[in-house]
Amino acid sequence: MSAVRTIGFLGAGHIGEPMVERLLAAGHPVRVYARRSGVRGRLSAAGAELVGAARDLAACDAVVSCLYDDAQMLDVLPEVVAALGPHTVLLSHTTGAPATLDRLDGYAPGGRAAIVDAAFSGTAEAVRAGRLTVFLGGEPAHVAAARQVVAAYADPVVATGARGSALRVKLLNNLLFAAISQVTLRGLAAGRAMGVAQDTLLQALAVSSGGSTAGSYIAARGGAERYTDAVAPFLAKDLAACRDTAAEAGVDLAPLLDAAQDGPMDLGEITTIESHRQS
Question: How far apart are CA 145 and CA 43, in angstroms?
Fold first, then answer.
């Protein structure tokens, strides 16, 4: 396994920007493609080298992509994949469909790109603390290279198997997280109806058997309303990706998807995969 020296980065948003900061603090030379002037200014001041096009990152030892969804990946990454060096590994932090990674293979000179799906669980605060949970799926040599990169901001790092497995783990995690969130939000509403203040119940749940990561996130966000506003768009996107991925594998997730939608948080209508593709 060769050492990862230069790292390219695209998608320096709410989560991606502190990732770049951690990579720089760990001593990695980092090249960044970013469109927003504010991000470019901050990361340049922190020591990152700015590039003018996404494909300019392809000569780095590793390229980290932290884009929002599959649509952004298919918009930005084809030119990067087409220009990847023979030993460059692409890490994708996007939570989306494993099939998208297969589509990117079509742009690789050899028909198969060195891509590691590097789905994660955690927040920007976890990145800054170096405690983000990252799942890695891919060929062993590629995963070993990816570990060198994510070690700057992730602990634990969990190898999940072949490429695509990390995304499946993350999608199932978010499906369960959505269901637990709905149950917790219902519990908070029941507490209010019974005269128990939301903050009081969240404090009690944090040290009791009814507590969960969802409960701690709701408390950290400042309550149910702010939590719902922050996470609902992401969970809705991930539930749709989970539904499609399971359907392509012939797996019926209807009971779990029903549980994830049954609550006060509006995560949209989860239609059949055929209806989704026609829309």
Answer: 24
C-alpha 99: how far from its chain's center?
16
- Contact yes or no for 15/39 (Cβ under 8 A): no
**CA 170, 202, 131 angle in degrees (round to 5)?**
40
The H or E element that residue 32 is part of is strand 30-33
Instruction: Quote the DSSP letter at residue 3.
Output: P
Task: Reply yes or no on whether the pLDDT at 272 is more than 50.
Answer: no
Per-residue model confidence (pLDDT) at position 277: 35
Helices marked H in 194-271: 198-206, 213-221, 224-248, 254-261
pTM score of the predicted model: 0.90
Q: Give me the DSSP letters along 150-181.
A: HTTTEEEEEEEESTTHHHHHHHHHHHHHHHHH
Report the candidate in 171, 173, 137, 129 with the shortest Cα–Cα distance to residue 154: 129
| 178 token code pair | 């959505």
Higher pLDDT, 2 or 52: 52
CA distance linking residue 178 with residue 61, whole number of Å: 36
Q: Contact, 207 vs 200, CB < 8 A?
A: no
Sole residue written with tokens 């990674």? 101
